[in-house]
Amino acid sequence: MKTFIIYSISFLFSGFILAQENLVIKRDTTELEEVIIIRKRKLSNYRQEKTLSSIDDYLEKSNKVTMIKRGNYAWEPSINNMNSDRLNVTIDGMQIFGACTDKMDPITSYVDVSNLDKVSIGSGQTGTENGHCVGGGIDLKLPTSKYNESGLKTSLDLGYETNGNYRTGGLDIEYSSNRFYINTDGIFRKSNNYNAGNNQEIIYSQFQKYNISLQTGFKLNKNQSIHANIIYDKATNVGYPALPMDVSLAEALITSVSHNYNNDSTFIKTLKTKLYFNTITHIMDDSKRPDVPIRMDMPGWSDTYGFYSKATTRINKHKFALNLNGFYNRSLAEMTMYPNDSNQPDMFMYTWPDIRTLYTGVFAKAVFSLSDTETLSTSVRFGYHNNTIAKLVGLESLQIFYPEITDSKSRFLTSIASDYTFKKKTYDVSFGLGYGERAPSVSEGYGFFLFNSFDNYDYIGNPTLKNEKVIEANIKTNFHTDTFHIGMEASYFHIMDYIIGDIDASLSPMTIGANGVRIYKAISNATIFDVYLNSSYKFSKSLSINGTLGYNYGKGSNDENLPLIKPISYLAEVNYNAKNFNAAIQFEGNGNQSHYSSFYGEDETPAYGILNFNLGHILYLKSNRLIFKYGIDNILDANYSTYADWNNISRQGRNFYANASFVIF
């Protein structure tokens, strides 16, 4: 399989000279994929209250996305009430995998707003362009190179928030000509412990992070260009109040080089080929916790090498896209325990026994224009997936539970999706169906005594698990006039061989104080359903209101509620937008989480509602701009937590913030 990837890469590079074509399909707004635009230096609508919002803040504005919080930093995204194991999260199409067994470093934590242009969110099988998934895909898209004769442009960003003494600073320098482009930027974030409502300090919620990136491009001719990107991200002294350990280091280096071809006069309209490499180091430790049963160090490493080649073409009114991609990943994590009695020996084990993952696959999509009002979209993805246990001691440890397993496991994965859209001037409706599969994650397949503080159990992986499979259906409809809009979207997922931990009473936990041991197994099936209603009304060109109401449901074939299923949620907002000024007041909250899952460690989360207020304005200083965003979060200083807050850690109380951006042309 490695030989196949090498030959594939060689073939793709030969395409630079022979094919000279490229693929990019711009998605219609009525399709199921959602795009969040990141324009941190412009006045924004209600989805962007702060110019220096983190990626987590942006993602949380989406109906489909919820951020699972274990602290004040590095929130884990979930789509359609499915966590990161069931998602495909990429950076500009590049596969990258966290190095933490406790999910303290989701992929979204290794980029920042300064790196990105937009975030593309695909629900269910519409998110399989870059890889297989069950719940959906998130692609954090890097900016495209901007070739023009504008010369040098600089911007400075500053932000401050009172809650946690949170400071942010960023600098961006860009130079462009008609043949050459280079951009470098950096951003720094630092926060002390934040306070929940009523001035309750949440200890171990501090963090510090900086992110630096470099992007450059060179035009070979009017149709071809070469680009290179480097992102370096480093977080230190990151506290996780919901967990028994903190993080002393989370570090990533993300690199890529690509060749782009664009030509509307050839059969292949676009061709983008990228080679990439990324490496992550993540170190958990409990050295700042005053009282722990036993001291532990838990470092982890993840290295990924990969490629993809994406092409698009158009035949009459029909659009076609193709993506051939592959990657090789190494994931290794270990744990060393230091007994309080110095006479006792240290204890060591591999929690991820150096798992090597090799994948190659192909994605194809066709968008057929049936008429001026009707569109049919169909996509397929096929992939080969192989896991190999590189550490013999890790294989021997897992063979205690699975005597027949070998050091290698291969799988074939399939994804098929289709949706039909009917669009008129004042309304549109779309229907979608899909089938997909995913391989178990490294933890689900090969994890060894991983402690989960959510349900207080140790977890053991299961290399014999089958592929998890899903059948899904969705519907989306909108009605709108010049002043009024109302829309509804709903999704249904029937997930077969649903992977989740099952208690094994015959095993004893390794973690002191744990309730027992769970082994990853597959229940027959699980059902997840969600529906959202969105509406807005414009009183005038400047004044508008909008609102969202959502309902979610999830249950397994064992008749147990699934964990981390969002209760009834709502958002109501009044917006005022003028040319150089905007203001908004928001009321958002969740209902009581009555369908919680005590079997999987959840308890009931009470209803809450919070009030937010934000303002923004822009000043023009000749050709330069000065942009201000400021406001108050949680005006009434409510003390609350949501269903997605690990171990009921309270969220931030009242918070005053101010962001300023100065753009120099």
Secondary-structure map with pairings?
Elements: H1 2-18, E1 34-37, H2 55-59, E2 65-68, E3 76-79, E4 87-91, E5 94-95, E6 118-123, E7 136-141, E8 151-161, E9 166-176, E10 180-191, E11 195-196, E12 200-201, E13 207-219, E14 224-238, E15 246-262, E16 268-285, E17 295-315, E18 318-338, E19 347-369, E20 374-389, H3 392-399, E21 408-423, E22 427-438, H4 442-446, E23 450-452, E24 457-460, E25 468-480, E26 484-503, E27 516-538, E28 543-556, E29 569-577, E30 581-590, E31 608-621, E32 624-633, E33 655-664
Parallel strand pairs: 4-7, 24-27
Antiparallel strand pairs: 1-6, 2-3, 4-5, 6-7, 8-9, 8-33, 9-10, 10-13, 11-12, 13-14, 14-15, 15-16, 16-17, 17-18, 18-19, 19-20, 20-21, 21-22, 22-25, 23-24, 25-26, 26-27, 27-28, 28-29, 29-30, 30-31, 31-32, 32-33
Sheet-strand content, in percent, reads over 45%
Total number of helices: 4
**Low-pLDDT stretches:** 1-31, 40-47
- What is the residue-averaged pLDDT? 90
Q: Write down the overall geometry.
A: globular
Q: How far apart lie the N and C ends?
A: 50 Å
**Approximately how much helix is present in the residues?**
under 10%
Gyration radius, in Å: 25 Å
Kindly name the structural category.
mainly beta
Largest β sheet strand count, sense and barrel closure: 22 strands, antiparallel, barrel
Number of beta-strand segments: 33
